[in-house]
Amino acid sequence: MAVFQFCTPEWLERLQKTYNSDPGNERFFKGVTASLCYKVLAEPEWGIEEDIIFGHEVFEGKLLWSKFVTEEEAKKCTFVFSAPPNTWKKLLRKEGEFMMEMVLGDLRQEYGDKSALIELMPYADPLLEFMAKVELQFPDEMSPDELERYRAHMKEFREKLGV
Hints:
Layout: E1 4-5, H1 9-20, H2 23-28, E2 34-40, E3 52-59, E4 62-69, H3 71-74, E5 79-83, H4 85-92, H5 98-104, E6 108-111, H6 114-131, E7 136-137, H7 144-161
Parallel strand pairs: 1-7, 2-5
Antiparallel strand pairs: 2-3, 3-4, 5-6
């Protein structure tokens, strides 16, 4: 199985392909219509020089897009959640739970109606579990050379995408 680097266009592309390749995802998430954004807070030691936001839009279980977005685009989404990279790592490695990370304050809801979040809660961990189906390498697991290539790649695609 291929390993993808966290928070890269290649990872998001694989997420979308993985989701769309399993019709069970659409059936399971049929009750979900929302655009969900996830802000990864800056962590220069991890090669993430500035906050970066990625997200997905799901309509009645269909994944419409999975991409990086600007702060302004994120404000138009149903929800935006933010956390430092190590919290995202914990969630995507299934070493933590969405609600528990919110209670602990490591994961914050930046935008979105708190009452609407209650309707989404049954899907929160399964959505993260879906994202965990793609094997990831996180920057803290990279050699110094890999980390430098990651930094350069991140700078390049962020400039290209305007994120």
